[in-house]
What does this fold into?
Amino acid sequence: MRKKYFDLHQFEGEAGGGNSGDASHGESGTTVLYGKQTDVFSRETEPEEGHDAGDDVDEAQKRQAEFERLIKGDFKDLYDKSVKDNIDRRFKNVRESREQIDEINMTLQPIYDRYGIEPGDFRGLDYAIRNDMSLYEDEAIEMGMSPEQFAYAKKAELEARRAQEELDKMKGAQEAQRAYQGWLSEGEELKASYPDFDLEAEVQNERFMSLLSQGWTVADAYEAVHAKELITRGIGTAAEKAQQNVVNNIRARGMRPSENGTGSKAGVIVKKDPSQFDNKDMEEIRRRVADGERIVF
It folds into this structure.
């Protein structure tokens, strides 16, 4: 979308040329503006274009084309290195997993040999152990049971423990689901203050999730994680409001900026040369900046 410009002649009307009201700093009936006013007072006007859904597609295609150009051009070496690092990291994880399995198989080798099981055949090893009644003889005698009865009791005990573990997992999943639904609800409310908030994106942030797991609300966690960004945005918003207040003031008075930028006639005086500022100018600039106005020379 093109930048929108304003023509201050449109402020002229029935109130045109009025001198009523207090001046910020200057003669009665005038408003003093400091610094460049290009964005606000440009006389050039351009029509505001409507938004077309096709624009988004074109923009995505342009970004993709630019990305392809960069990774095949100036940034090819960095991109290739990043891909290589990712591949190496993945293969490193696979290699470490295989090494751990090899260590386990080496530890279990005597048991594999006892039952004639191939290393790595964990299912076969599990079956052989469960059906080896000699493993239960001593404990079965102490319990006054046969090895078969004792083995059956141990199997039932194991199945009960596994069932409890599954139940605990289900409860944990249900609690997690309830927590997530609560986060969704809080997230929708938070959008009233931060329209660009995206819970799906935020849950990818480890710090954000860590704070939520500690009992923080979605709003508190978001503001803590993005504190610096939100403060910067707030300062920018304050400056925009201050600038808009000036425009509204001009519209209400039906004035327009002085052509020579330093004139004394009723209207708006734009002072852009710091070398010509007096003490009152400097005090006024300091006050406006403190109130959030952004002044650029």
Residues 1-23, 39-48, 258-266 have pLDDT under 50 and may be disordered.
